[in-house]
Amino acid sequence: MDLNDAKWHKSSRSNGNQGACVEVADNLTGIVLVRDTKDRDGGTLTFTPTAWQAFISLAKQH
Fold first, then answer.
1. How confident is the model over 15-35, as pLDDT tens digits?
2. Strand, helix or coil at 6?
3. Rounded to an integer, what distance in angstroms lies between the CA atom of residue 34 and that of residue 52?
4. Which pLDDT does position 32 carry in this prediction?
5. How far apart are the C-alpha atoms of 58 and 6, rounded to whole Å?
6. Nearest to residue 38, comparing CAs of 24, 16, 22?
7. Average pLDDT of every residue of the chain
8. Main-chain dihedrals φ then ψ at residue 49, nearest 5 degrees
């Protein structure tokens, strides 16, 4: 799978965190990528869209 087509974005709520946030690429078929904005060349977490939506739903509850 070619990850070069990933379109990364940050949450609009990440402003003011002095770069301490994550970026998400959810435009690729079948995967959602997550990385640290302070170390973009470091590791990238990979989730299925279903797992990512479950995470987001739980995060919104807390």
1. 665 667 889 999 999 999 999
2. coil
3. 10
4. 97
5. 25
6. 22
7. 88
8. -55, -35
